[in-house]
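Sample pair:
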Amino acid sequence: MLTAAEAASQLGVKLGTLYAYVSRGWLKSYRRKVGRQALYRRLDIEALRGVVSTERGRRGRSLPAASTWVTVAQPKSIEDGAPGVIVAESAVSSITDGRLAYRGYPIEEVVERASFEEVCLLLWSGERPVPEEIAALKAEIEGAQMPTTVAAALNATGEDAPPLLRLAAVMPSLAAWDRRQPPRTRIDRAKLIISQLPLALGNRPEGGAPLGVGMAGRLLGLVPSSTGSDWEVAALDRVLVACAEHELNASTFAARVVASTGADLFASVLSALCSLSGPIHGGACDRIEAMFNELESGARMDECLSTFTRDHRLPPGFGHAIYPDGDPRAVLLRAVAQSIARHRGRRLFETALKVEAAVFKRERLRPNLDFYLTVCARMLGFQQSLPAAIFAIGRASGWIAHALEQYADNRLIRPRMRYRGAPSRHWD
């Protein structure tokens, strides 16, 4: 048996590469009975040495078996925490012991100190951008105009189309338009997508320019009562940053699967938006809004919550499999909602606090991101059904980051399934 350092030395690779071989199923690691150090069989290392030799960035002339170039899902070990399967490695974000980090930066610090545009560039490149890059992206978002052909395709969806459907409708037509333009880099294409998404939601009813620079200012243009004040921009910016990235949820996985086929960024973002349209993954905001509508129309809170218990459903916006002790993003957005309440009144915020207390008393559940995202959006004056779209625009930065990461070291993502159908049989 060899240690990780010895195995990496035998293969002539770095430790990170060795661990990547394990995650891809090329190599099996073993644990000591005492301690957590991984060990590797010498025979496995010797067998692998010829397979992983590179030639100008490619595998050697003899192509290995498909299992070496297709990502196959692997069970997580119990000591890794929550149950699940590992299907990829990523440096975009991490969730460890209930703590979320973007590119190594704790979510608490990022939400407090970074703008949404800064987070986009951080997620896409891996490092904090310089001020000039941040200003350039903000200016691109503020000055974005929708191409005529894209606007025509969007109009065909109808003015009554749900916001998420409008976001999705933009992607194919934008991809078709982009193919007729001079070639651009993937990062420039990422900036194009981010700058076009808010345009799919329309403009301020009476028209006019965005209220302030950047994504927050562009989105506040949808709110008739907004003046684009500094506190509004700061509050919405924090909401977008909190939504930006969350490891490998269903929509992000969809984006990575599509990217692994070699499809472009437009297709990856479209697949993520389609995944988000499902009520199990992306419908929480709408259900939370419906709950608040009932409460505001006079429904008693205990009766409202009893309905979920009777139907064996979780209260919308509560509980998260990754955070049994509570979603840290909800805590951050609760503070944002409190700051908004100082300017817009405390009525909705206090109702949210009462719902949170009642659900915890009944179910011992804490709120997740969706709950206080919806509260913040309603307090800022966004119309019904827009909180889900705000989430999607924020999360698009993470979808793009994962697609870019997939392109950089691509292997087709092709998980396997366990067959549970009829036994082997013959037609005649």
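The domain at 2-68 is CATH 1.10.1660.10 (Multidrug-efflux Transporter Regulator; Chain: A; Domain 2).
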